[in-house]
Amino acid sequence: MGFTLGTGTVDTIPVGQLSYKQLTGLAENAWYNAYIKLDCGTEFSKSIGPVMFHTLWLNDLGVSGITMPTATGCDLGSSEEVTIQLTNFGQAPQTLFEFYFAVNGQPAPIPVPQDGLFTGVLGNDSTQVISFETTWDFSEPGIYHLQAWTVLDGDSQPKNDTFSTFIITAYPKPLKENFEDNSIPGSWVTTGIIFPPNAHNNPTYVLGRNLYASVPNMEMTTHRVGPIETGDTLKFDYRYVNWSAGTTATTLGTGDKLEVQVSKDCENTWQTVLTINSTNHVTSTDFATKSVVLNAYDGDAINVRFRGTWGSGDYWLDLDNINITGCPEALYLLGDVHGSLEGDSTGGIDLTVFLTEGPFEFIWTNAAGDTVSVNEDPTGLPIGTYSVSVTSPDGCTGFQTFTIGTFVAADEVEGLQKSRSARTRPPARPSWT
Q1: Among candidates 116, 161, 113, which has minimal Cα distance to 134?
Q2: CA 364 from centroid of its chain's CA atoms
Q3: Which of 27, 172, 312, 379 is 20 to 30 A from 14 (CA-CA)?
């Protein structure tokens, strides 16, 4: 790239040949310029160009996707198959290379060559889908960080060897939603609408709907949350007020009701845990708070559904401040580890506290128990093992240990450590405020 027009290598395409099929002797991973002109016999046409192209690495292989389990898998079992896409990004065909996967940083026990050895031929710019014979237990509700990668001697571009994704079978506790960001979490399903403050005498943003003869129902279903533990509680605020100003409290009649239901089997079946009707409704323009103890679902992951049913009249049904108490398991601490130069202190850890609201307190200690940092992402660390203790504002705590290895080319550290440019983040959290 950037050579002076009139210099460089000249190639002549014979009369009648429409394309020049191959340029040889080019460097790997390099940009080139070419100018094209027509030989008219006595003179040349004006040059067209530059035409720019980029050569590939000769040996460049990696995992380009994970197709199973699906990213939104719900009821996964204890022996799930992992299926990946192997792609040859380079020019040379590849064979007899190894491939692996890991879950939450734990490599799967893949026996090579019985499993994890590619014995076919993967040509340039081709992809092959392949499944591991080694399975994994995804039955515990939660979030799984799934990584798959290739191992090829002489791979020129190790940054694209690894593909990462997240399998979400349930979001961790707590669930906190008050709609103050004027939106509905993308993982929820509802026929309700967000109303801004004072839309119908509501003091804050609420989820609601005008129920009457032509619109007799409202539903809202949360994402899956869990696992639930004894003592966890579902809390929410609700009210009924007359259409349209909302300044008069609604007295429920026969057929008017709000049902709160729970599913522990991925929404296949539902159990009604609370019904609000004319016998127990709090008649007021103010919101009333209701609580449901979830002890019956200890160990389960659950969806919660609110179902409003119209019987008579014309009113607003509003919901707000929907919460499930409890702490997530270990605060879901995920870290990207960057190696240190041998004999130096150049390592670091990029920590993510997933699906829990801050601000947090961090205490990092080394193997001797000495505090080395109180920052989320410590830097300037030598090779070694480091542990972090994290505390959230509502008292939830988490603890995790990471090992910093030796820095190698392109900041690729042996095992599962990834380069900064390829840093993987968890999927976007639900709208929590």
Answers
A1: 116
A2: 26
A3: 27
Q: Is there a contact between 338 and 378 (Cβ–Cβ < 8 Å)?
A: no
Residues 319 and 333 in one domain: no
| 136 burial via Cβ count (<10 Å: 0-12, 13-18, 19+) | buried
- What's the gap between Cα 167 and its chain centre? 8
Q: How does DSSP classify residue 192?
A: -
Question: How far is it, in rounded angstroms, from Cα 63 to Cα 128?
Answer: 10
- The answer to whether the CB of 121 falls within 8 A of the CB of 94 is yes
Domain at 257, CATH number: 2.60.120.200
By the 10 Å C-beta count (0-12 exposed, 13-18 middle, 19+ buried), 318 is classed as buried
Write out pLDDT tens, residues 27-49: 999 999 988 888 888 898 998 88
3-state class of 166 per DSSP?
strand
- Of 39, 31, 30, 46, the residue nearest 10 (C-alpha): 39
Q: Are residues 185 and 314 in the same domain?
A: yes
Q: What's the pTM? A: 0.73
Q: What is the pLDDT of residues 306-326, one digit of tens each?
A: 999 999 999 999 999 999 998
Q: Report whether 356 contacts 330 (CB < 8 A).
A: no
All residue ranges of the chain with pLDDT < 50 are: 409-433
Quickly list DSSP for 289-347.
EEEEE-GGGTT--BEEEEEEE--SS-EEEEEEEEEE----GGGGEEEEEE-B-TTS--E
What sign does the dihedral 407-408-410-412 (CA atoms) show? negative
C-alpha to C-alpha distance for 220 and 204, rounded to whole angstroms: 19
Residue identified by tokens 């939603």 is 177
